[in-house]
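User: Second chain of the day. Same drill as before.
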Amino acid sequence: MKSQAIERLTPKARALAFCALLAIVSLAIACGGSKDETTPTASPTRAASTAAAGTPTPVGEVPGVSDTEIVLGADCPLAGAYGAVYAMIPDASEAYFKYINDTQGGVCGRKIVYKVEDNGSDPAKALEAARKLVEQEKVFAMVGSVDDLPHAGNWDYLNEKGVPDLLVSAGGNRFGTDPQGHPWTVQMIPSYTIEGTFFGRYISENLPGKKIGVLYENSDQGIDELAGLKNGLDPEKNQIVSEQAYETTDISVTSQMVNLQNAGAEVVMLGSTPGFTAQAIKEANRRGWSPQWFMSYVNADDMLFQFVSPELLEGTISFQAFKLADWKDDPAVARHYELMRQYGGPAPANFTLYGQLLAEVAVEALNRACDNLTREGLMDAVESIKDFHSDLLLDGVDISFSDTDHIALQNGRMLRITVQDGKGKFEYFGPLFTFQ
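Assistant: Same format as last time:
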C-alpha cells in the first residue's frame, strides 16, 4: 500500500501524459547533477555502521519489521508527465508483492508493505521523501527507487543511516561501483557506462570506418554513456567527430543536431531521455538526415511509437536484458499480464516487466535473510545471491552480487526497431554482451 496513492492510468492517459513529457523536456528523468546542499557527505562502511550499532537488534526492534509485516519504501517520480511514464515501475513491483502476500503469505512469515513517495525528479524532494520513509514510516529498506537526479540527493543520507538502498533504478555509474564508500546501495539496471561500452563494441565490430556523433545529457546519464562509448570503441576503427551536450533545462536541441550533421556523423548515439530523443530524431528527419541511431535503454518502450512515427525509428538500436511485453505467447510474459490484472498493476509494458523483475530479486533477498532479519542481515543476503535467473530474463542473463559487486544487470542484447504492417516493434538480435 502506498503512502501516496497513484491513479491507475489507461494507455490513452499515459499517452497524453507522455505527450506532455515531450512538450516539457526540461523535466528530465535520468540525470545526474550535483548533490543537494543538505545531503550528508560522509558514508561509513557497513562494518563501521554495524560496530557503532553494537549487537544486531532483535527482530522485534528492527525498523520496519514486526511479527506480521515487513515495510519497504521507495522514492520515485509519481506526478506529472514523468510520473505517468515511470510510475508504472513501482506500480508493477507493488502488484508482484501483493501476489507474494496472497499466494505465499509474504516472506519470512510476514506480509510485504510497500510505501512509495514522490521524489519529483528533484534531489531535495528525494531527500525529504527518504527522510519521511526512514524516520516516520520506519521502513526496513528502500527498494526500487527510480531516477538518477533525485537519487544523487539521498543515497549519502541512506548510507549514513545504514538503511539498505536496494535495486535502485538509477543508471549513473557511481551508484553501483562504490560498495566501499556506499556499502548499502545496490544498483538494479546496468549503468550507462556499461550500456555505452556495449554500443562502442557493437559499432567497431559491425560499423567500422563510420564517423560517430554523440548527443548527450550533461548529467550522470549522458556523461557516463559517453565514457562507456569511448571505452568500447576501437579507435583504430571508429572516430567520434562531434560531442554535443544539452542541459536538462534546454527547450531545443536543434543547434546540437545541426552541429552533428555538419560534422559528418554517420552514426549517432543518443544518451538522452525520451523527450529529447524524440525531438532529435524528428529534427534530423526535417533536415533530411538519417544516421544510424543508438539510443539508451531508458527509451526502450513501445510508448515511444506514439510520438515518433515507426518509420522514423526503423533501424534504431537500443539495449535490454529481459523479455518484452509483446511476447504474449511466452509463459512468463503471459503470467505477468495475469498478475498485473489480478493484483491491480498497470497495463503491461516493457517497464512493468522490469518492475516485476526488480520485485522478484527483492523477494529472493528477503527470503534469504529470514534467519537474520536485520538490515545487516539483508545486505548479507543480497550479496549472497549468485546466478539468480528469473523467467522474465533473457536466456544467458543471470544476476549475481558480492561485497565488491553491487550491480545486478551487467549483460544483455541489442534491440532493433522494425516496422511490421505500419507498426513499430522492438526485436532482439545478435549475441549476448557481457561487461568485463
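The first strand starts at residue 69 and ends at 76.

User: Great, on to the next one.
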